[in-house]
Design goal:
By secondary structure, the protein is α/β, with parallel strands linked by helices. The protein contains 18 helices and ten strands.
């Protein structure tokens, strides 16, 4: 247990330095053998520390105390046979909790009118996770002086654990230090770092859940937060995240409604969306998937599992785009690079419009947008998301692919092909072809003929 606590402690050190907070860990033993699910216990300790850092003043004090205790130290005695326990306390000198709020802290959806805004689900979930470990959690506060959250876990029986390593080093899946502004990077490098990351839109009406999700993902992704579905939908009108993670139960617009809006709107239908919910029944899961959610994850979730799901969705999208952009002379099949009927129909319409006008050297992005009933900016946004190419690049890509097909048919001269695919002159076509495929049209065709002959032998 102590190694685990120390790992979490060290990940908050940079945040403590930035806020000039005295942050220490104290322990009365070398090891505390316990049976814990590190993923769930990570959520517990991070949640308590986040609350402490959120409300402690600058130059304040936060301590983590780890100590052995007996039955007399417990808030209640669940099992008299279990006589040895470990107590972990997160103590700070922040705003504190009023006496009226103290008795409701661990109730689901409780909202304090005083210091602790947005606790509710966060502390309710924390309590549930501690109890899953046969433990207990308490809170005490003297407002403006100190606040303590303590959880108690049963120690393992030494007889049972002989030969078993008492402490296992736990490697966290992220680093709190990323919350601190990177002072090493200059402004230009910092902007470049942001541009190189994919963007996640996190949607939840509980601030603590948003804080926790941001903690999990902020080292790998740019993070955008929305506190309900309506705010998320407003954001999506003008922005393009790479993936959305949304809670289901929210005011204004819930996650199910948000999912329907996203998946039934052409501008957003391609964006992967994961729903998080406490309703983990098969029926609820099927409902989420039927409305178009790409995945449905029950709470409490394992951070590493959720990270893998997110990474897989984004990598799958990138692989499809990469496969598409490396197509040489093949026919573009929309259903192979899209995941829903709206996107497939859109791409079919775009391809049909370009093919109909492929010999028109004046065919423009504006004309393409008019045909598919989309503004230039929206066309750019949608086509870039699906194919990885801008409208201009996609039109060029289609011209070159058509040229490749005509060339391999060996029925037209290079000059004829250049006009068939909308180039003003054979020379400009040859230059573009060589830039695209690394060879002139004639050399490319000769190499293709030679390869076919070798294969026939």
């Amino acid at each position: 247990m102590l190694h685990f606590v120390k790992d979490v402690f060290h990940n908050f050190l940079h945040l403590a330095e930035r806020k000039q907070i005295s942050f220490k860990i104290n322990a009365d033993a070398e090891a505390y053998p316990v049976n814990i699910d590190t993923g769930k216990m990570e959520m517990v300790l991070n949640n308590l520390l986040f609350n402490a850092f959120k409300y402690v003043p600058e130059k304040g004090i936060i301590n983590i105390n780890v100590e052995k205790c007996g039955l007399k130290d417990l808030p209640s005695v669940p099992n008299k046979l279990q006589t040895e326990w470990v107590k972990v306390t997160v103590q700070d000198n922040g705003k504190g909790i009023s006496e009226a709020d103290s008795s409701h802290l661990f109730e689901r959806y409780f909202q304090s009118d005083n210091a602790l805004k947005g606790t509710g689900v966060g502390l309710s979930l924390t309590k549930r996770l501690v109890e899953l470990h046969k433990g207990m959690i308490t809170a005490s506060s003297a407002p403006g002086i100190n606040t303590s959250f303590s959880f108690f876990l049963p120690l393992r029986d030494i007889v049972i654990t002989q030969g078993i390593e008492s402490e296992q080093h736990y490697q966290l899946g992220y680093d709190i230090s990323d919350l601190v502004e990177d002072t090493v990077l200059n402004k230009e490098e910092h902007l470049q770092k942001i541009k190189s990351k994919n963007t996640l839109l996190l949607v939840d009406d509980n601030v603590e859940v948003l804080d926790y999700l941001e903690l999990v993902f902020q080292s790998e992704y740019n993070i955008i937060r929305a506190e309900d579905g309506a705010k998320a939908w407003d954001y999506l009108q003008n922005h393009e995240p790479d993936l959305i993670i949304s809670d289901v139960m929210m005011p204004e617009m819930d996650g199910v409604t948000l999912c329907k809006e996203v998946k039934n709107n052409l501008l957003t239908s391609h964006i992967p969306l994961i729903l998080l919910t406490a309703k983990a029944t098969v029926e609820n899961t099927l409902q989420g998937l039927k409305i178009g959610a790409d995945d449905y994850v029950p709470k409490p979730f394992y951070p590493e599992v959720l990270k893998v799901k997110v990474r897989n969705f984004i990598e799958a999208r990138n692989k499809l785009i990469d496969k598409f952009t490396h197509t040489e002379g093949g026919v573009v099949i929309p259903k192979n690079i899209t995941h829903n009927p709206l996107d497939e129909d859109f791409l079919n319409n775009v391809i049909a419009a370009i093919n109909k006008n492929i010999d028109n050297e004046e065919f423009s992005v504006e004309e393409l947008g008019t045909i598919v009933a989309m503004s230039r900016s929206n066309l750019f946004r949608k086509l870039k998301a699906i194919t990885g190419q801008t409208p201009i690049e996609f039109i060029y890509f289609m011209r070159m692919n058509k040229a490749m097909q005509l060339l391999l048919q060996r029925r037209f001269s290079v000059s004829q092909i250049s006009y068939e695919v909308g180039f003003k002159s054979p020379s400009s076509f040859t230059k573009s072809f060589k830039k695209q495929f690394g060879k002139s049209p004639t050399d490319y065709l000769n190499d293709a003929i030679a390869t076919n002959k070798e294969e026939e032998l």
